[in-house]
Write a structure and sequence with these properties.
- The protein is about 10% helix and about 55% strand.
- By secondary structure, it is mainly β.
- It has one domain.
- The strands form 2 sheets. Strands 1-2-3-4-5-6-7-10 form an 8-stranded antiparallel β-barrel.
- A hairpin with a 2-residue loop joins strand 8 and strand 9.
- It is elongated.
Length: about 200
């Protein structure tokens, strides 16, 4: 009986220690920063991988010449971002928080700016859509039970879909739509509220 009891205690201790730290099953957050406002969900794909889906309004600080002279504009953005959190175990061993996905991550940020509308853009300027794919490195930290902040940076590639018969900067295209391609830097700092 004593051996069985000792075996069960050791087994329960092993099971408790073997439980891995994992990303949260699903987190809804609203973020704001100097570049915009976003509403997102981060859903668990595996213990260290999540998928962040996002909709928002953001300032694109590297718009290229298709909105030359437009000043400060906000445009809608739809984003899919798989994230791999790589330092949960290290944070746990250092007695640091991992709740609500507090950790460092690498991601593949894929953003689409549709041509629905652009806030603070002259009515006569044709709106353009673009697709950007940016490998990023970032960190996310939880403050208390509801507030958090994120910072991320990267370098990626963007395709801008310019419409036919549009004047964008000093370029006029009358033959048909064409695309601009450009490398873009990415940097963002955000503060948020998790529901």
């Amino acid at each position: 009986m004593k051996k069985t009891l000792l075996f069960l205690i050791l087994l329960s201790n092993l099971v408790a220690n073997a439980q891995e730290i994992s990303v949260e099953k699903s987190i809804f957050t609203i973020h704001t920063g100097f570049l915009g406002v976003w509403f997102n969900n981060e859903s668990k794909l595996s213990n260290n991988v999540s998928l962040k889906t996002e909709i928002g309004l953001e300032k694109d600080f590297s718009v290229g010449d298709h909105y030359d002279g437009a000043g400060f504009i906000l445009q809608p953005v739809l984003t899919l971002e798989p994230r791999h959190y790589y330092n949960f175990e290290k944070r746990k061993n250092s007695n640091k928080k991992t709740a609500k996905n507090s950790g460092n991550f690498v991601a593949l940020k894929t953003s689409y700016h549709p041509d629905w509308f652009v806030i603070n853009l002259d009515e006569n300027t044709t709106k353009t859509a673009d697709l950007a794919i940016v490998p990023t490195w970032g960190l996310k930290r939880q403050i208390g039970s509801h507030f958090n902040y994120e910072a991320a940076l990267g370098l990626g590639y963007r395709i801008i879909y310019i419409k036919a018969n549009s004047i964008n900067g000093n370029v006029q295209n009358v033959d048909g739509a064409y695309n601009q391609h450009q490398y873009i830097p990415y940097f963002n700092v955000r503060a948020g509220y998790t529901f």
